[in-house]
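In the current project phase, the collection of sequences with tokenised folds has grown. A representative record is quoted in full directly below:
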Amino acid sequence: MLTVAFQTLRGRWVSFLGTVVALVLGVAQVAAMGLLLMTALDLPDRPVERFAGAPAVVLPTDPAWDPAHHDLGVRSLPEARGVSRELLRKVAATGPTVVDRAFYAQLAGGPSDQVGHPWPMARFGGYTLRDGRAPASDREVVVASGRARTGDRVTVLTAAGVGTYTVSGTVPPVGWEDAVFFTDAEAARLAPRIEALVAFGALDEVRAAVGGDAEVLTGRDRHRADAGEDRDREALDNTVTLVPVMAAVAGTTAVFVVASTFAFAVVQRRREVALLRAVGATPRQVRRMVRGEALLVGGFASGVGTVVGLFGAQVLADMLVGLGVAPPWFRVSVRLAPLGGAVLVGVLVALCGVSVAARRAGRVRPVEALRDAAVDDAGVTRGRAVLGGVGVVGAVGLVVWVGVGDPAVALSPSAYALALLVPVLTAAVLAPLAVGPLTRLLMRPFTGPVAMLVRESALTSRRRTAATAAPVLLTVGLTFSLLTATDAIGAAGESGLRGQVRSEYALVPDGTPGISPQVAAKVSRIDGVQVVAPVLTTVYVRDEDRLEVLDGVLMDGAALKRTMDLDVVDGSLDALDDNSVVVADQWGMKVGSTFKALLPDGEEAALRIAATYDAPHGGDVAYLPQRFAATAAYARDGLARRAYISPAPGADRITAIREAVAGTGARLVTRDELLASESAYTHHLTEVRQRSVTVIVVLFCFIAILNTLLMATADRRRDLAVLRLAGATPRQAVRFFVAESLLVATIGVTLALLATALNLTGLWGALHQLYGTAPITLPYAVTTAVAAVSTLLAVAGTVLPVGAALRAGPVEPAGIRE
């Protein structure tokens, strides 16, 4: 039957053209997304940078630690502690050893990613003095030429405060870091934590001395100790987050559209299949022929689609770079796995798309073949009914889950974007059931022969009507749901943040990655000014055989009450002392209980739960007493991301604050300005994620609309010939088909609105629980524009083949031949 399938494809290739186009685009989308995802998950293969001249590097690591599973900047416990004094002593006993420290050190007015190192480390990165000399005193530094000249006095911002140094020399700049070099003693004062060791001893002796406390890196592996690997991971973080969401939503949409289009193509050819049954073909032979056609079409289209996806992947990558999601150096690399997977998906989708229709046609008895082929039944297949029922249960269940059970799901772009798909796809599956009631309802105001013909045509061909309405439904439904969710979550998050912060003013970084606690302490010495500078740290909790990593913030109880309006569930913030902690209620810890916390500097502390608070919108951090301030420099960079200020009345205090922070890398802002800046970045990322997905889905669905309508209308040459032979003028025939395409588009938009209403019900419930308010603003303008374009494409997909058929004449044999 494969030969028969090939012959039917040769003879009826025009009928399969729309299916091939849909499958090519679907496979191209899957291939492009797969290439993007695989490329984003692999860091660039860069050469060794800072340790290129080091024979061996001793780096504390945790073999089980995967940075991709943790927030940016979070270190494993061995990394956070760094090289211990005991390990330094053991390695130093094997031969000469150089201590490396890496810490925040920014020249005033310089870039925020500048880093400090002890001068003895310079030679391993290829640094050589261009002029001057090495730093001889703790008030001297060496910088890259172009940042300052030898002999200049420069201000350096560090986590330990603001200091003034003399430039003793300069080195040529390098492309992988912008370093400031200090003496060994000054670097140790600024950063007590030892990052790594460069060991010159015999490699076997070094490994024996290190044991299991750290890892000894040589050769290409030394790059793992470079900061460049973390920078690359950070640069790709948003890409890695966004691409799976895009792939899941766009891929699901593509597979659904392609499967529907292929199944529709088989339904269009029921007359041929019925004739085969009438002349003696067995059901098995019919199924084999149709599946053979699907295999041939699927293989050809998948191959072409893979090539298109190979080139389209970089186009998508360039789009992400333009949106600021991916770094400028992001380039797609060719991987066989996603390309092979795309081919396999294309073939499987083609086979699955025809399986139901082929099985259904194979069950037709020869005596009923011609009658079954002449009339499109109005029913729904058992498989579609089961799938639709599962979809309804799943859609309602997801709405209840998001709106009542776990509202925080709405804040997860990947999970919630997939949840939004379910009601829309369910509506598309059950569209044949809705065609009858909607057609009668929508056509009730219209009278006349054209309206009657349009109504009866849609009612007697419900599967065709549903198939052509499905792309419109997907386009409008996904656009409406995704954009509304994006805007609503952003507005609600800003409202929730506004209700949580009490302070009237705040210090925010001004061209720096954070604010030094010493700068905050300087402001607090102003009479009548209270300052709270929460510094982010990390808490490690042993859970059976693994460590749980928790975010922590250093604040005392009085400051916490003064600056933050936490929704306390149990206990009291007044109970926060030097041996207690305030945690999120979601952690499941009871007030009064204790747990052992491992701190980044190696200290182990038993902390009592003083209070628990509700943190529905992601700010589930532990509030720790200030006595653990020393751990911050081990866990992160030791900087405060903001400082809350509560001044006594008086304009002179505001002026004094501005003067105190001048030149320190901090800037005074009002509460409203702080909240706007805090929410803007998060809202921007959410907006980019959702809108990127929407753009890709909409473009694909636009093509699917045009493709499906072209297929449906081109197959109706008999209907057009009958109209013309019955006396209809060309204008009347065109009016009939245009009116029918408008009805189809309206049915799709109506179903899209119903599915979106279900999605918005769950979203409203989630936002109401999370923030106590649900300011949902509907994107009428964008959705109306998408619906209008969808309708125009539907009309164009109808008018083009009708116009071509009219030029052939109403009684031409080609006009009525199947």
